[in-house]
Design brief:
By secondary structure, this protein is mainly α. The chain has helices spanning 2-12, 15-32, 41-55, 62-66, 70-73, 80-112, 123-151, 154-165, 167-177, 184-192, 194-204, 209-232. Helices cover 77% and strands 0% of the residues.
Length: 235
């Protein structure tokens, strides 16, 4: 475990890592302010949180292949599994930072609007926000690992992740759910698959128990597949 923490420190200390995260956060905070009602800023930013997490994370493994550091990184004294775990934990830490920023913005705006603190968020809502953000980051990062190991390209991974989990796929699945010919089983699977539910869970600050199971299953399978693929890969 100490070895994983040592790699994690190296990962988080990379010059562009945290800096790019905060740049992404600032950009989407500015975009969130494009509203006629200041009270909408927190909910706007909450809606952008999946983009913040994906944009700040899709390159986490691809950078090693594109910068030609993969031979050095994956041939070091640390095992490939330890490196993969450290990269996953670094993204989870970044997702917690994003959730904290949302809470700070939410409280700041509501206090400015003179809303009583007790009426802003309950403890349960705060816990749900952190839990849903961490679960989202876990599942998406594990899938990013797998896609990156196939493509060896961070940019291609970003495009594929956008196609699979954002606007286009969401629209297609929403249209499918609206169809009168769809079976209950198919509708159930669509509503709970990460391709449809992942972003909505972060935006709503809540996943149902079934969605949690699906998200964890997808994430664990993707991580195990990535780990096997990486350890068998000739680098």
């Amino acid at each position: 475990m100490n070895r994983v923490f040592n790699i994690l420190k190296l990962e988080l200390n990379k010059p562009k890592n945290i800096r790019n995260l905060f740049i992404t956060i600032v950009v989407f905070l500015i975009v969130s302010c494009f509203t006629n009602d200041i009270s909408n800023i927190p909910s706007n930013f909450l809606g952008y949180m999946p983009y913040v997490i994906i944009i700040s994370s899709f390159y986490i493994l691809g950078v090693e292949f594109e910068s030609k550091t993969d031979k050095i990184v994956f041939s070091s004294k640390y095992t490939r599994t330890e490196i993969l775990i450290s990269k996953l934990v670094s993204v989870l830490i970044k997702s917690i930072i994003v959730a904290i920023i949302f809470l700070v913005v939410n409280y700041a705006i509501n206090i400015y609007l003179k809303v009583p603190i007790s009426n802003i968020l309950t403890i349960k809502q705060i816990v749900n926000i952190f839990a849903s953000t961490i679960l989202y980051a876990f599942t998406m990062t594990c899938i990013i690992f797998l896609v990156t190991l196939v493509t060896k390209n961070g940019k291609a991974t970003g495009v594929i992740m956008y196609i699979l989990f954002f606007d286009l796929m969401n629209s297609l699945l929403a249209n499918a759910l609206g169809s009168s010919s769809i079976s209950k089983t198919t509708a159930y699977l669509i509503e709970n698959t990460p391709f449809y539910a992942a972003n909505m869970g972060v935006k709503n600050g809540y996943y149902s128990l079934t969605q949690v199971v699906f998200m964890l299953a997808f994430g664990i399978v993707a991580f195990l597949a990535s780990n096997i693929f990486l350890n068998r890969k000739s680098i």
